[in-house]
Amino acid sequence: MAKIAVVGATSNMGREILSVLSENNIDAQNIYAVEMKAPLGTMVSYGEDDDLDVFNLDDFNFSKADIALFACSAEIAKKYLPKVHQIGIKIIDCSGATSADNEVPMIVAGLNDAQIKEAKKNIVSIPMPLVTQLLKPLSKVNDKYHITRLIINGYLSTSLHSREAMDELFAQTRKIYMNTGLVDDEEIFKKQIAFNVLPQVGEFIGEETKDEWQINAEVKKVFGGNMKVHANLAYVAAFIGAGLYVNAEVLEDVDVDDVRSLIKQTEGVVVFDKQLDGGYVSLNDIQGENEIYVSRLRQDLSSQNGFSFWCVADNLRADSAQNAYRVMRLMLQ
Question: What is the pLDDT of residue 130?
C-alpha cells in the first residue's frame, strides 16, 4: 500500500483529507501527518479510533512516502515543494502554489483526468474549492454548448479562510449574544464578520481581490478556450460551505431542460430544484456531504443564450478533500 504524507495535517483542509482517507479504509500506518513547526507530542485524529503523530515539516524525511498532499498555505508550499520534488515522489498541490505553472496540470477528478499524463514534474494541482464547485456542474454543459462567459457571485463561509477565522466568527457571535463589546476582536477580518457580509475575499490586487483573480485563472486553465470570467466574492457569517450564484452564456441557443439533464448526469452533482418554498439546498443542508448541489436552475432572459443556477457544497469536503483523494488514486494507478 502506498505511503501518504499530508502536509498541513492540522489545517481545516488537512483534517478533512485525513477524514476522507480514513473513510476509504487507508490504514493509519500508511499515513504521515506533517505540519509546520509542530511541537513534539502533537497528535491529530484519524478516523474514530486512531491518532497520528504529527511530524515537524522541517525534520520530516519525505523519502519514506510515495505521494505527498500539500494542504498547507501557498507560502509554505512554495518553500518546501521544490525540496520534496527533488526526492522524486508524486505531489498533489492543494495550496494554489503551483496553479500558474504551465508544467503542472490542474485536475478536477472525472473532468480532465487525462491531463495527469502531462505532469512533467510529477506534480499536479487541484483548483481552489470554488472552482471545483463551479466546474463540475458545468462540465458536460460546456462540452455540448461551449460556454463563452461566466459571472460568479460567491458567498463563502469562514472555513475557506482558516480555523482562526471560524473561531473569530464564533467569538464575535457569543459576545453579541452576551451584550459584550467587540473591541480588539477583529483580527482575521478587518470588519465584524458576525451577522455581516464582507465583500472581500483575499487581498486586493488592483480593483479585484486575489481570490477573484484566481477563479478567473483556474477556470481557464481547466476548461481552456477564450472564456470570459467575472467573479464577485464575499464572506458570510457561516462556518462551513460555499454558495455560488452563476450566470452562464453559451455559443448557441440553450435549452435549460437539457442543461438540467446534463447536470444530472454528472457524477458527484445532485440537482434538487423545486419551485416552492424551501425547494432548494442551502449552506446548512450540505455540511459533511460529498456532493455538490444545484438549485434555482433557470433561463437567463437578459442574455441571448444564457442560464443561471445556484449551487452549494461543503467546501472542505466535496470541493477539496474528495477531489484530492480521487486525484491521488489516479496518480497512484
Answer: 96
